[in-house]
Write a structure and sequence with these properties.
This protein is of the alpha+beta class and 486 residues long. 32% of the residues lie in helices and 23% in strands.
Length: 486
């Protein structure tokens, strides 16, 4: 066996510590260690700061101002239960729920695996139907509301492909609505007037109202002698025939007792004198005209009768404007604000045409071009009316909203123009003095596409494939040339 002889040259080792290579190498190592230490310290400090920044393009995880108001005013505890199988949690939904919990100490949440612990969910099941994984339960006291997983996303139908696709995330909409539901002392009831050929509410609108905790009931004032006391609002949607004098008196009596009502109405045939009499008592009149928009930026391309009106400053419209939604109002009449009206009335325009619009007074005309007898804009398409009177040592307030268009809630329009159904929801919330409930915008799931020309593609390819590698190569060569003699 050979012996291994190690011979240390302590002098050579000592000299190596004094060499330039050792000095530069040690300096570089020290600098790397300092940088790594600083990075670790910064991460530890930042991790302790309770502050988060939502960098997603559409603020996917951020709560709206309306939700924050609801959470700040909570006076009772609310529990949110998320149903997920272990390992199948939706991190986006849970992240949003955590934001609710961080905002309010009244909110708590837990995750339950419905496959492992079905016995914990039996009290939330209706008709023996088990709850879907991915659903949420919001509970406070003895009230609860189940949000099905499919209601957390808004879907839209593509007529060209024949398929449904996810359009927007509605987690915040549904959660805040459910919190309002379980904490409300009473739920709003909206009565829709029937018996005069009124349009029925489209399925999408009715479902949206139910998700916003509204109860919808029909009201026939021929068979009932008054608007029920529990009514939070009366909805009149596109009547084809006039009300009787008795019905007019019943609606008038309801409104005079701090009632709330919204009218989607048109009278192009001039056969609604009792409705018109009712509206005139609130300072407005429907004009028997057809509005034509002259500004090409405020109507559908190629059709000036398909108006996209301006939205004035009002709490009903602020969320729509901030959400970059528009209201689409094809074939509108206009609303005239009467000079002779009660001093207690405040009339605020909501939807208005441009001053380039004109109104056809001859409804039999064969052209929509402006003629001599036509009226000049701008025109009111919708107005909000407040009637405040001081009586018996208290202020009594009646609210009425009039829309001179019956197409806004057309079933095809509301499924394609989110602004139209949100206009109705916000109007109903304004009628109820529930501005904090006014529309929470869903978060779009549409992925924006980068559109670049062939020339731009060539430029970007040259930068990525040629320029950047050359810069890296030149930097390396420069460092090597400078350090090779060290």
């Amino acid at each position: 066996m050979k012996k291994l002889h190690l011979k240390f040259d302590f002098r050579a080792i000592k000299e190596s510590f004094r060499s330039k290579k050792f000095k530069y190498g040690g300096y570089a190592t020290l600098m790397v260690a300092v940088v790594v230490a600083i990075a670790i310290i910064i991460n530890l400090i930042v991790d302790q700061i309770p502050w988060e920044l939502d960098l997603t393009q559409n603020q996917m995880y951020s709560l709206s101002e309306q939700t924050n108001k609801v959470l700040d005013n909570l006076k009772q505890d609310v529990k949110i239960i998320a149903l997920y199988e272990t390992g199948e949690e939706d991190k986006t939904v849970l992240e949003i729920i955590e934001r609710y919990q961080k905002r309010s100490k009244r909110i708590s949440y837990t995750v339950i695996d419905p496959e492992r612990y079905p016995q914990l969910l039996t009290k939330y099941e209706k008709g023996g139907e088990s709850l879907n994984a991915g659903s949420l339960i919001v509970e406070s006291g003895d009230k609860f509301k189940v949000i099905d997983r499919y209601d957390l996303v808004n879907y839209t139908y593509n007529e060209y492909s024949g398929q449904w696709y996810a359009q927007s995330l509605a987690v915040e909409q549904r959660l805040t609505g459910a919190i309002l539901y379980v904490t409300a002392e009473e739920l709003p009831v909206v009565y829709t007037l029937v018996g005069h050929g009124e349009d029925s509410l489209p399925y999408d609108v009715r479902k949206q109202l139910e998700l916003e905790n509204y109860t919808i009931e029909d009201l026939n004032l021929v068979t009932q002698d008054s608007v029920p006391e529990k009514a939070h609002a009366l909805l009149v949607l596109a009547p084809k025939r006039d009300i009787t004098k008795e019905e007019e008196e019943r609606i008038r009596k309801y409104l005079e007792n701090q009632g709330r009502a919204i009218f989607f109405i048109q009278n192009l045939n001039g056969e609604l004198p009792n409705f018109e009499s009712l509206l005139k008592s609130y300072g407005v009149a429907l004009q028997r005209v057809l509005v034509v928009e002259g500004d090409p930026n405020m109507h559908y391309p190629g059709n000036p009768l398909y108006i996209i009106p301006n939205m004035e400053s009002h709490s009903i419209l602020s969320p729509l404007k901030s959400g970059q939604m528009y209201v689409f109002a094809p074939h509108s009449q206009s609303i005239e604000v009467l000079e002779m009206k009660r001093r207690t009335l405040t009339i605020e325009p909501l939807l208005v045409t441009s001053d380039k619009a004109w109104a056809k007074t001859n409804l039999e005309a064969k052209t929509i071009e402006k003629e001599e007898q036509d009226l000049e804009g701008p025109f009111n398409i919708a107005v909000a009316i407040t009637d405040k009177i001081y009586q018996d040592n208290e202020t009594k307030e009646t609210r009425v909203l009039v829309v001179a268009n019956t197409n806004i809630l057309n079933s095809r329009l509301v499924s394609q123009v989110p602004g139209n159904v949100n206009f109705l929801l916000n109007s109903l919330n304004w009628l109820r003095d529930r501005e904090e409930s006014i529309s929470i915008r869903p978060k779009s799931l549409t992925t924006p596409r980068l559109r670049i020309s062939a020339y731009q593609q060539l430029i970007f390819s040259g930068i990525v494939v040629v320029l950047i590698p050359l810069i890296v190569l030149a930097s390396g060569l420069t460092v090597w040339l400078r350090r090779r003699h060290l």
